[in-house]
Amino acid sequence: MNKQVKRTSVDAVRTATGRDWDEWNAELDAWGATGHSHKEIVAWLMDERGVGSWWAQSITVAYEQARGLRSPGSGRDGLFTISVSKTVDVPVDELFKAFMQTAGEALRERTSQPGRSARFDWEDGRTRVNVGFDAKGPGKSVVAVAHERLESPEEAERMKAMWRERLATLKAHIAP
């Protein structure tokens, strides 16, 4: 069983849908799901089996992973996205400003909404970085980074480690 399936228990899927993971996999195999797109599988689960949209997505992702159509952490397109966040004891506007000032040449800004979000192209020209900022109180905020379009689990691991280090450095630089 993969990481995605482990997060949602067998009991939870059975309670919500009337079947467990193995039963869903068998039913999807019988239908021929490996020959269908992610979107088609989700639609079939919703339309033909009456599964709600959240569960249809969860069942489809778990099935694709179990059948080797999708690696854990990747989309159906085979690309990976990682995310890292850090809570800092400063107001959100200060955190946003510090992040933008230390972005460096690797990040090429596409758009931003001060104090809320920023979107960048990464220096490789093929991946994207989306950064969100949220206030958690008057003197506390969180920055969350999502790096998209990564090509391998190894690249995803490297980028996740790099972003963890980068956010830790940012926190050390601006924390009171």
From TrEMBL:
InterPro entries: DUF4287, START-like_dom_sf. Gene3D superfamilies: 3.30.530.20. Pfam families: DUF4287 (PF14117). This is DUF4287 domain-containing protein. It comes from Kibdelosporangium aridum.
